[in-house]
Amino acid sequence: MNHRPRIQSLALIFLLLLFLSACSLSEPTAQPPVPTREVSDIPPAVNSPGSDSLGDSLYAGFGNGGYDVQHYTLDLTITDVEAGEMDGIVTINARAVQDLDAFNLDFIGYEISAVTVDSNPADFTRADQELTIIPARPISSGTAFTVGISYSGTPERLESQAAVGRVGWIPLDDGSLVLSEPDGAATYYPVNDHPLDKAAYTFQITVPSDYEVVANGVLSDTSDNGDSVTYVWQATDPMASYLTTVNIGDYDLETDESDSGVPIRNYFAATLDDDAREPFARQAEMIDYFSEIFGPYPFEVYGSIVIDAEVGTALEAQTLSLYGIDQLDLDDIDSAEQLVAHELAHQWFGDSISVADWGDIWLNEGFATYSEGLWIEYTQGAEARDEWVMDNYEYVADYLQDEAPPGTPAADNLFSERIYCQGALTLHALRLQVGDDTFFKIIQTYFDRYQGGNARTADFIAVAEEISGQDLTEFFDSWLYADTIPAIPELDLSSD
């Protein structure tokens, strides 16, 4: 994600996902649940309810415990695109990790008409964003079960708990988009909304025939219904909920393929001029370069979508990065290209390796920001990279030291500029500390060990110490947790 003003351009192993499935479930078919009544009280516990939290250090209300989702099928019929009005049927395939007599999902707004568990009507209650489901029969630990939820309405406007700006399902004048990070997914489907519970997805989205749908993964089918079209997108790799996106509009598609064989599909709003495409011309080359220094590209496809609107951010949805046209400086293609490199790098760091706790967000944003510097180094040389490092250092030292350090972000300012800039500088300082060969071995080992899952800062530090053979406690304490940015003597940089 990029919420920050750009200067120069500016994910213990995942909390053990209990009963993590070793293989994908067969693709479910969404069926309308049987109508149920909403109840005011949860029946007395027979076993125990799943928790209404996954214990995130910054956002206690995010996520839910007691089960592990394997697959979501989102069957959404958009009846009014500009208003975001929809009829939804969401099918959730999950596995209980404890005995359950009730469990929670995160879901904001809409009128729920039916809830089923294993095709049997289930009772439910709602409070704030917590949807509590009470199945007709308790679910035993280790049991696979299927939840069906039918609902309708328009999405509620949601201001993120973590950053300034609107997230979730956002209607536009000529379409809509979804910005899910960090807490927007619950504005359009019932979800276990925390990075710890990754799942595969099927997006079955029906829109009026003059619109297109672009979502995560691969477009597997389109069906012409006369006055509407149904698009089916399949995202088979496990994905954190904050990385989901659905975009509705009129787009021009451009395709490409990297030398390493990664298909690329870019969607540009049809109203954009051709110059909006220029920053994306080297995406294939970027994929191959990052694959060389990080490890193989982790998904089956990549691409970008550019919206002809002031979105206020660029966002790294899995397999599909989103850009508002306001985020691309078309007068400075190098800067715009660095942003493209930033969002692409998130596919490794943030998307494949996701944080286990939002308090470790620097693992996402610091790595992606440093990838900007690595791209500069690759395309312009070490001297240009050092200039980029110095610019970022001076910016932190002069303007950002009142913000929380990268290792302890503020809950109401998760995406602070210091997280980005000093997070990147932490990695460069580590590189200078251990040397190039060791540094890139650290990065490759970290990615290889945690790809497809979740990580904490402690996990990255452990890898760095293992590969380097050094005690890096003092180093990381000073760079991630101290109030003042440390010096970089090799570059004659100091905050004094």
Write up this protein:
There is one protein chain. With 496 residues, this protein is an alpha+beta fold. It has two domains: 1-11 and 252-496, Neutral Protease Domain 2 (Neutral Protease, domain 2), CATH 1.10.390; 18-197, Sandwich (Immunoglobulin-like). It has helices at 283-294, 333-345, 362-380, 382-400, 417-434, 436-450, 457-468, 473-481; strands at residues 67-80, 85-96, 103-106, 111-117, 120-121, 123-127, 130-134, 144-153, 158-159, 166-172, 175-179, 199-208, 212-215, 218-224, 228-239, 246-249, 251-257, 263-269, 304-307, 314-317, 320-324, 354-355, 454-455. The strands form six sheets. An eight-stranded mixed β-sheet has the order 5-4-8-2-1-12-15-14, with no helix packed on it. Strands 17-18-19-21-20 form a five-stranded mixed β-sheet, with helices on one face. It has a three-stranded antiparallel β-sheet with strand order 3-7-6, with no helix packed on it. The two termini are 31 Å apart. Residues 5-46 have low confidence and may be disordered.
Kindly report how far apart the N and C termini lie.
Answer: 31 Å
CATH architectural label of the largest domain: Orthogonal Bundle
How many strands appear in the DSSP assignment?
A: 23
> In which range does the helix fraction lie?
10-25%
Question: Can you count the helices?
Answer: 8
Overall pLDDT score:
92
Q: Which runs of at least 5 residues are low in confidence (pLDDT < 50)?
A: 5-46
Describe the strand arrangement of the main beta sheet, using strand numbers. Answer: 5-4-8-2-1-12-15-14
Task: Please identify the top-level CATH class of the largest domain.
Answer: Mainly Alpha
Gyration radius, rounded? 22 Å
Coarse morphology: globular
**CATH fold group of the largest domain:** Neutral Protease, domain 2
